[in-house]
Amino acid sequence: MKNLHVSHELMMRRWVMTEEFLIKIIGLIAGSSVLSVVIIILYLFNRPDKFEHWMRLFYQLIHHLSSNLPSVKKAIDRKLVAVSIQDTVNHICDQINEESPDILPHALKIEWIKSDTPDSFISKGRAVVRLKHYDNQDRNFVESTLLYLKHGFLPRTKNYLDKTLRQSSEYKVASRVFMARRDTGAYDYFFENEMMPAVKDDSRIQDDLQLLENLDGVGLFTRVFLSEVTVTGQKLLGTVPTDTVKRELRDFARFLETIATKAKYENVPLSFMGTKVKASVILVAKHETIDRHGIDPYTSRIQRLLREGYDSIYLAAWGVEFIKAVISIKGKIEHDMLTIIRRYDYPVYSTTKAILLVCQPKSSYLAQQKRLHDEVRQAFMDIVPEVKDGLVNIVCVSRVEKVGMKVAIKTVGPELGDPTRCCIGAGAQRIKQLKQRFPNEFIGLILWSDNLEEFVKGAISPLNPKYIDEIQIDDENLIVNVTVLSRESASKAIGKAGYNVRLASELTGYLINVKLPPSLAKAQSPEDELTEILKREIPEILNREIEVVRLARIKGVGSKVIVRWTVSDPVQKHRASEACYGYEHGNLQRIKEYLPGERIYFHDWYETPEDQISICLYPIKRHEIESVEVDDSSQLAVVTLNQGANKIVSSERDLNLALCEEVTGFKIEVIHL
């Protein structure tokens, strides 16, 4: 059975459509029986795909009846055009969301304005488009759809795509919308007035459109590529969309294109192991394998992929025999090895001709995040009746296990007022029960707001908004810069070990930077200068995936930086120091451009001081060290080098030791055997 999972945002968009339509329909049936009203309401609530369609028919009827009333007909005509566009766009968007949830989570709502300056924004769960009404209905259709996609398409994750691939993806979705209405000239207008001018300005768009067309031809555009973009965005929620991630997603699209366009017996790479995208495709397509060995080779390969750390596994087959094999594989791997996220059947003349299973290992990052968030949602449902009854809605959650959480909440109706009172309870009984459920974790209740600035103010609590001087929002790069009035305010907003601002970033989906006004900013120390450069040139440090544990710098000479991963990844392929150096030391070369003549060393963090000192003594190599003896009380470390150790020029040795001492916190004496 096709997976019919509908996200929370999709349910909310449908409820908003229900509210608006019921107001109109109840007025029409006011004279009917109560039973008729109930039947119609229940039918429409259970068939949300029909809301806009019935509204369209309603306005068509009124439009016809008002043919002799020009002024009324003109007003109704505008309503009819808006509802007709909404009907088409929202219907296609629902289809796309079934192929990959959360690609288009907001329904379209059109508002006609007199101004020549169009606008679009998210409000009350819908993507509102405001633009001028033209006599050319194809122009209305095209411009409103493209404005809608500007904010409604992958709202939190599209900025992780580079500019041309993102624009081409929007055009691909738009083409599907326009092709659904062959009774209009919308596609031709779009092709001539939007797509072709864009291709003329940038030929790369044409190449990307062809790439995405190749993916879509075999069902990989929405179900695999955009699905992986969404997954990557969820992993990176609250981080800067770096060029590294954008290049990786483009490489992944090309990887899928190789599979989509391969010849029948051609062998092509089926696994993609990037820094963030770790996906593999398994094609069940060889008769000899099934005939000789059954499904065992496929289950063995899945086990190997899990050991190698792949986050997504796509299991695909074409033809009755191979579809049966995939279903058998599903029965063997589900629950024990993988979680089946979605299943797609590809019907041809009502018969299934192909199948695609989207799977994730139970230990994947997203699976762990889902577990952490589900625990929070379940606890609130158990303890807060209003949440269970649907009167208080948990919009989103951010959580670091054994540290704390932030929960964004809002009321579904106005009758409850402040939802935080419901969650706290009389005498704070409910919040006490929640804290018992999550011992040693702080719980932050945040009022949800469609206004990002207001939402950010709440998200960085316990800082009082009155201590915020300015908020600057960079929608392109998903960054919010919050300038506060004092150092105490900055400390409160950032929180202990940076957890408060980290949780706020994850909750809002924007990287939140807390800054002091220029008048309070102190003169930059050499270490602060290096820290800023590291954040600028190493994406993993900027995105808080790698933590700088300690660093030491002698200006004009060099630096030593101790780093470690902040993410819990048992199959991490690279040490944190290797990631900081970058591929072929690319990061290091860029950093040196800021600090000419300085030597920079990255060292991995170790728990024991002996190991930490040994690694930080580089360029003295570990095999040259005979022993390291540490006296914690005096903070003295005696390092004995063996006879094979290279002799270092005295000045260089002294500077290296000085940096090593500063970064480790130990006085170091070196003895040669």
Say how many strands there are: 20
* Arithmetic mean of pLDDT: 83
Shape: globular
Percent range for β-strand residues: 15-25%
Distance between the first and last residues' Cα: 73 Å
Enumerate the strands of the largest sheet in spatial order, edge to edge or round the barrel: 4-5-6-8-7
Q: What is the helix content?
A: 40-55%
Report the uncertain regions. 1-19, 21-26, 28-32, 44-49
User: What's the alpha carbon Rg, rounded to whole Å?
Assistant: 29 Å
Structural class: alpha/beta
Domain count: 3
- How many helices? The count is 26
Main beta-sheet strand count, sense and barrel state: 5 strands, mixed
Summarize this structure briefly.
49% of the residues lie in helices and 21% in strands. The protein is α/β, with parallel strands linked by helices. The model is unreliable at 1-19, 21-26, 28-32 and 44-49 (pLDDT under 50).
